[in-house]
Amino acid sequence: MQAATVAGLRVPQTWQPHADEDFAARAAQMRYPLVAKWSNPPEIMGLLERAGLEWIKTDYIRDAAQLLALLDRYAPIGRWPLIQQYCRGVGLGQMLYMAGGQATLRFQHRRLHEWPPEGGVSTLCRAEPVNAHGAQMALSEKLLQALDWEGQAMVEYRYEPDSGHYWLMEVNGRFWGSLPLALHCGADFAWEAYRRTVLRQTDPAPPARDNLRARYMVPETKRLVRILLAPGRIDDPFFRRRPVVDLVAYLLAFFDPRARYYVFSRSDPRPWLRDMVQIVRKAVRREKP
């Protein structure tokens, strides 16, 4: 986060509590609301289970009293989740391939839906025009240059259209889940990595389309079901629920010529068929006594 601040990015207030700190003093300094999330869930799950504590992926905190209560909850194990300023807005991902300190391929998308609804994996995203968020794309490249980054990366933000603020969430160096949208648009990051590192090609990548969107149908359907039938399970108290709008949009998207899919492709339906078989197998196993 220090490198991001030096590069000029807006970073949410973040605090990792430790046992030797004055929790009350720190709680008074935080900017509310807040989000609490574990930085390494697999590492902490066993500790929580042995202590008889429930693993909660995300907690939403409105004031200092709620924060102190949360910190007290985890005192028996002496470990606490990361506390971060809650950032409103939509998810914006800026994807770059870095080679020799320069971006050789750029692409960006906006997250329209996520699973779970309050935030998680992207289930519906759309490509953003190449001339949008230009100053922020330059800052993303500046950050990766400061980190001496080589290869693919997605710099993830929470973007507030009303204020124009971009809040840095993380830098993802793995191939991200929404990569199919970039591929459908012609921004082929896997090929860029191969041709640069193996074939040693240095010619510019072709320009990508910016008018498509992609759907991840299984979690997108789960999202709709939760909004319609189980809104009480949406943890984020600031989430705006629009059941009728979401239902109509879900159905109309099947007829949208701009729509593509994470898994399904008419030219190669086998991955989708395999995915469906796995879903059915899991459902059958759950039903067995």
Descriptive report:
With 289 residues, the protein is of the alpha+beta class. The protein has 2 domains: 2-85, Dna Ligase, domain 1 (2-Layer Sandwich); 89-289, ATP-grasp fold, B domain (D-amino Acid Aminotransferase, Chain A, domain 1, 2-Layer Sandwich), CATH 3.30.470.20. The chain has helices at residues 2-7, 23-29, 41-50, 64-73, 134-146, 179-185, 189-197, 217-229, 243-252, 270-287, and strands spanning 14-15, 34-37, 58-61, 82-85, 90-99, 102-115, 121-127, 151-160, 165-172, 213-215, 259-261. The strands form 2 sheets. It has a 7-stranded mixed beta sheet with strand order 9-8-5-6-7-10-11, sandwiched between helices. The chain has a 4-stranded antiparallel beta sheet with strand order 1-4-2-3. Strand 6 (102-115) and strand 7 form a beta hairpin.
Key terms:
single chain; 36% helix; globular; Dna Ligase, domain 1; D-amino Acid Aminotransferase, Chain A, domain 1
Overall, the morphology is: globular
Helical content (DSSP H or I, runs of 4+)? 25-40%
Number of domains: 2
Give the N-to-C terminal Cα separation.
49 Å
Q: Given this structure, which CATH class of the largest domain is correct?
A: Alpha Beta
Biggest sheet overview: 7 strands, mixed
The assigned CATH architecture of the largest domain is 2-Layer Sandwich
Number of helices: 10
What average pLDDT do the residues reach?
Answer: 92
Unreliable spans are none
Order of helices and strands: HEHEHEHEEEEHEEHHEHHEH
Widest sheet: strand ordering:
9-8-5-6-7-10-11
Number of strands: 11
Based on secondary structure, the structural category is: alpha+beta
Q: What proportion of the residues form beta strands (DSSP E)? A: 15-25%
CATH topology of the largest domain: D-amino Acid Aminotransferase, Chain A, domain 1
- Under CATH, the homologous superfamily of the largest domain reads ATP-grasp fold, B domain
Radius of gyration: 21 Å
